[in-house]
Design brief:
Length: 411
Amino acid sequence: MAVGAGVNGSDGGEIVQEQAAVLGSAWHEYAAALTSADEAIRSNESFSEDTAVNAYAYLAGLVERYHDLVLRAGDPRYPRWVRGGATPGRDAMNPNADTFYLYAPVKGSESYRIFGRLGSVTQTIIGSYLPRIPGDTSLSGAHDRLTAEDLKVGRDGSIEIAVGPERPPNTDNWLATSADVDQLKIYEVYGDWEHEQRGTFTIHHEPSLGRRRGDPTAEELAERIRRVPAAAVRLASYWQQASRGVAGRTTPNAFTELVHPQIAMLGALFSKCVWELHDAEALIIEARPPEDSRYWGWSACSLFGTTLDYANRQTSLNHTQAGVDEDGVVRLVLTAQDPGVQNWIDVGGHPVGQLTWRVSTPTAPSTPTTRVVPFDDVRLHLPAATRRVTSSERSSEITRRQRQIARRYAE
């Protein structure tokens, strides 16, 4: 039979032409939407010659993320986990350098099962999430969430979680959804990068188990193609307004009050600081983490929400990496040059950006305090017992970070 001919003769060719037209139209819309995303990025007040690389890294990260989530894993009947957040190459939306993120598309009115084993990371949170609403500058909130401590674990260390709008009988672990839920997320938060291990998880749509999967129709594939740039446009516009909001709510080089956003990991409070520094300046940050906090950490991002290179530079620190002074205060030095102290946040090449403090705690801490000092005077503003770091020691620390991040994201 000739290519394009169907069982009804020429009708097959007509069907093929119709499908090609549907897909071609979607592809042209895809290209036009990417141009719109480019325009949204360039119209951002923070876009400049200095921030252009960050802006386009953010946009590219969004597109790659949604390629994975919508095109490669976009069928909620046959879902799979895809990586997101701070994953190298698809970094967007102000992620945490300490967190390994997983996403899976679902249809909230139907039933799923998650199987796997928990890792040894500091925190594991599994949640069902509502979609982002076009035109809404707030991000989607969680419908339901579970922590590792909530789960009943088998004797062999395995877990099984029922997912759906109703709890099945005789079910130990259940993650609730609603008809509006369209995505599941897993947050695995590292403390000790060297020794903690992430878990392993699979997800299955229960009605599809044992059923052969057919190819998507032209209409289904066209809809997925359209969704990728549509998400990039929406989130590029969102981040334009969000970065303005962050900059508008805070004095430069000062932290905002701690808040608990519903899109974030469970039980975490967040505070942001937009820095504006010259190379000859340093920002000294002081914070007192609560004694009952199981995790706290700082992660530096551009104004466009892409993390600064946390594998090859010290642009983040957490509760296992930062030194705490005898008075219980953590003192960081945020600057472009290496000040030769343990708690350095490296922002070289980024005169502006945002630093986020995340604290998992039932007790809200005080907002961190800050002061800008000349770089040459940094040590005058730190306790005499502050741990010094030589260039050789710094090189060794970067080597450890490179190896740890490579292991975290190894297949």
